[in-house]
Design a protein that fits this description.
The chain has helices spanning 43-53, 74-91, 108-124, 142-155; strands spanning 28-32, 39-42, 56-61, 68-72, 97-103, 127-133, 160-169, 172-179. With 181 residues, it is an alpha/beta fold. The strands form 2 sheets. A 4-stranded mixed sheet has the order 2-1-4-3. It starts with 27 loop residues before the first strand and ends with a strand.
């Protein structure tokens, strides 16, 4: 029989992801594979079949009754699993959120400068979260913050779309923009 840990992709002291060969505890197993007829065999016979082929008996579905095992090269199997996970990770989209902070009475030059940065962020595919920070008693003039954020959204309507209306949380008024496709 093929022994575990003979040049396999298993680090010493770490338990493998799947039970293989002698680590399988069931008395009978359903064996599936490329060149094998799917059937239920006693564990010893299944191990002998795997040994004849020079491959490993790997428990794929331990919760099934009887457990499903596959006769394959375990290191190749692990390599293919890692490859699939890598592809899935590469296809997943990472959402980047950039923040832009305004004061309640931001000047036109500063406003235009921040709009220019927000345009760049949206063109790169990042979301933009803009907020007005109110200090002390300036929270009484919430309408100035709303006007500023509305002006900001209007200036960027060609590059992004509004995800959420301006809303007040504590001493900050937020607005969120997502890039247009």
């Amino acid at each position: 029989m093929v022994e575990f840990n003979k040049g396999r992709n298993n680090q010493v002291g770490k338990e493998p992801q799947h039970r293989i060969n002698e680590m399988i505890h069931a008395t009978q197993v359903r064996v599936v594979g490329d060149d094998i007829e799917s059937a239920v065999y006693p564990l010893r016979q299944a191990l002998a079949m795997a040994d004849e082929m020079g491959l490993d008996l790997v428990e794929i579905s331990p919760n099934a009754n009887p457990p499903v095992c596959r006769i394959i090269d375990y290191s190749k199997f692990l390599y293919q699993l890692k490859k699939k996970q890598k592809e899935i990770k590469a296809k997943s989209v990472k959402v980047v959120v950039k923040e832009i902070r305004f004061g309640q009475q931001t000047d036109d030059h500063d406003f235009n400068f921040k709009v220019m940065h927000a345009q760049e962020f949206l063109q790169e595919g990042a979301k933009v979260r803009a907020y007005v920070f109110f200090k002390g008693r300036s929270i009484l003039f919430k309408d100035q913050g709303t006007d500023l954020l509305t002006r900001f959204v209007e200036a960027l309507e060609d590059y992004g779309k509004l995800e959420s209306e301006p809303r007040l949380e504590g001493k900050k008024m937020f607005v969120m923009l997502t890039p247009k496709k």
